[in-house]
Design brief:
The protein contains seven helices and three strands; from the N terminus they run ααβααββααα. It is mainly alpha-helical and 117 residues long. It has one domain: Winged helix-like DNA-binding domain superfamily/Winged helix DNA-binding domain (Arc Repressor Mutant, subunit A), CATH 1.10.10.10. 28% of the residues are buried. One of its GO terms (biological process) is response to arsenic-containing substance.
Length: 117
């Protein structure tokens, strides 16, 4: 079980980009860097730096598929952290509406990969 310390959890979520990344990943279950960069209208290096911090702090895990790296919530994330994240997504879903709309305009995953990766 991955147990981020409360301070580390809240510091990880205290940045606008990182919070949106985590919430979008929760909403989509898994996303690649190029999808996130497009949805947030940010550069891939900036997104990658934020993802690295979230991974280091135990919130995210990644997997490589060819040239793409996909991120998801860390398997075994502790129940307290999951509860905070689920409640945040449930109560503040409009916070990520615009990025998710941008993502939806990209189409499904195979189309997304052709568009941005």
């Amino acid at each position: 079980m991955v147990v981020p310390a409360p301070l580390r959890l809240f510091k990880s979520l205290s940045d606008d980009t990182r919070l949106k990344l985590v919430l979008m990943i929760m909403a989509e279950q898994e996303m690649c860097v190029c999808e996130m960069a497009h949805a947030l209208d940010e550069s891939q290096p900036k997104i990658s730096r934020h993802l690295a911090l979230l991974r280091q702090n135990g919130l995210l895990a990644d997997r490589r598929e060819g040239q793409w790296v996909y991120y998801r919530l860390a398997p075994g994330l502790d129940p307290g952290s999951l509860a905070v994240l689920r409640a945040t997504l449930e109560h503040f879903r409009p916070y990520i509406d615009l990025p998710l709309q941008r993502l939806a305009r990209m189409g499904n995953r195979p189309e997304r990969q052709r568009l941005c990766c």
